């Protein structure tokens, strides 16, 4: 009888552990920490911070919002800084960096009069989680299996790397482009709606799209990804690079066109850059921050056994270091946008900087 009681007790304990384990797994499946953090941040934000839901993405039994946050000037001629994160669901660190910067900005707004004066001269728009469905599923693509950074109707002018450059074979394979000629994915269309509304006709606008990417160094990429020839206003990128290096000579970023590494089909920023150029005479500089993940893997090789570990720093102190290390760059971009009239090249200076850019980045091409 005693043995039967012990067996019954063990079964009861095991059943309770299984119940708790199942409950935890269900909680994980219905819980996106970055989205909760963002919504909490917005709930506590000052009243003059505007937020809206651009679209909603269905995944399993959930409907996840794509948020847009607007901060600063509503003047039609004010420069715009657009911050984007979470384009690839696996690269959670991109979203976390954008949210960390927003949290810092909103905290400073409570006491920093100089910051409030600055925001009266610039408009900041943030889409911290563009691909909430992919992030929830812990996959690079959106829930339909489409890689959003291969989802624009633009074809590479040259040989692209097999699969990596975009493929239309199957959404079961990585880097699937979808059928953008039939319409881009809802996440891409949400970003397009913001760009179409804000950027054409502005004297200056700048975008920073935050990713993690393989490499030892943090890189700043700029168009084009679909061809090896330079973008139209390459002089403005060279001017921005020099401005950053003069102000912060000990930085760790490498500025390069994406085409220096590989060509891709369907790059969103190539597409948006060309669209904005066709519709206005202002300057638009789209940048992609590629945070080098090889350093995290080198210091903690067992991250190789986790898919998330390929793209994100998992050790707490390294994660905190990454979150704070890019705040200065984002502050710099806001100040550069506000003061673009003081450094944006024209005339002979633009021609000189264009020649310098061609020599620096396109000598072999």
Automatic annotation (TrEMBL):
Its cofactor is Zn(2+). PROSITE patterns: PEPTIDASE_M14 (PS52035). Pfam families: Peptidase_M14 (PF00246). This is Zinc carboxypeptidase. Residues 28-365 form the Peptidase M14 domain. One of its GO terms (molecular function) is zinc ion binding. Keywords: Carboxypeptidase, Hydrolase, Metalloprotease, Protease, Zinc. Belongs to the peptidase M14 family. GO terms for biological process: proteolysis. InterPro entries: Peptidase_M14. GO terms for cellular component: extracellular space. It comes from the Bacteria.
């Amino acid at each position: 009888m005693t043995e039967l009681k012990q067996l019954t007790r063990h079964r009861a304990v095991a059943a309770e552990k299984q119940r708790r384990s199942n409950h935890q797994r269900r909680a994980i499946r219905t819980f996106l920490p970055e989205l909760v953090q963002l919504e909490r941040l917005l709930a506590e934000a000052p009243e003059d911070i505007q937020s809206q839901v651009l679209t909603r993405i269905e995944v399993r039994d959930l409907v996840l919002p794509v948020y847009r946050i607007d901060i600063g000037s509503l003047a039609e001629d004010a420069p715009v800084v657009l911050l984007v994160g979470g384009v690839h669901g696996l690269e959670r660190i991109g979203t976390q960096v954008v949210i960390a910067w927003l949290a810092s900005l909103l905290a400073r707004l409570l006491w920093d009069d100089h910051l409030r004066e600055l925001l009266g001269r610039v408009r900041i728009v943030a889409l911290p989680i563009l691909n909430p469905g992919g992030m929830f599923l812990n996959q690079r693509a959106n829930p339909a299996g489409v890689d959003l950074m291969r989802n624009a109707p633009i074809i590479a002018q040259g040989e692209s790397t097999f699969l990596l450059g975009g493929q239309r074979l199957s959404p079961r394979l990585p880097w699937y482009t979808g059928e953008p000629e039939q319409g881009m994915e809802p996440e891409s269309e949400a970003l397009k709606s913001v760009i179409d509304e804000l950027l054409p006709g502005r004297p200056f606008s700048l975008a920073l799209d935050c990713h993690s990417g393989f490499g030892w160094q943090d890189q700043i990429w700029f168009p084009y990804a679909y061809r090896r020839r330079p973008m139209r206003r390459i002089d403005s990128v060279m001017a921005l690079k020099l401005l950053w290096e003069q102000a912060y000579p000990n930085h760790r970023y490498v500025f390069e066109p994406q085409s220096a590494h590989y060509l891709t089909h369907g790059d969103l920023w190539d597409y948006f850059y060309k669209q904005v150029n066709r519709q206005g005479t202002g300057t638009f500089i789209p940048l992609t921050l590629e945070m080098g993940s090889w350093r995290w893997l080198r210091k903690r090789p067992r991250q190789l056994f986790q898919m998330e570990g390929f793209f994100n720093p998992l050790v707490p102190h390294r994660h905190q270091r990454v979150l704070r290390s890019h705040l200065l760059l984002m502050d710099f971009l806001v100040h550069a946008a506000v003061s673009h009239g003081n450094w944006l090249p024209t005339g002979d200076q633009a021609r000189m900087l264009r020649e310098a850019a061609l020599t620096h980045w396109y000598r072999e091409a």
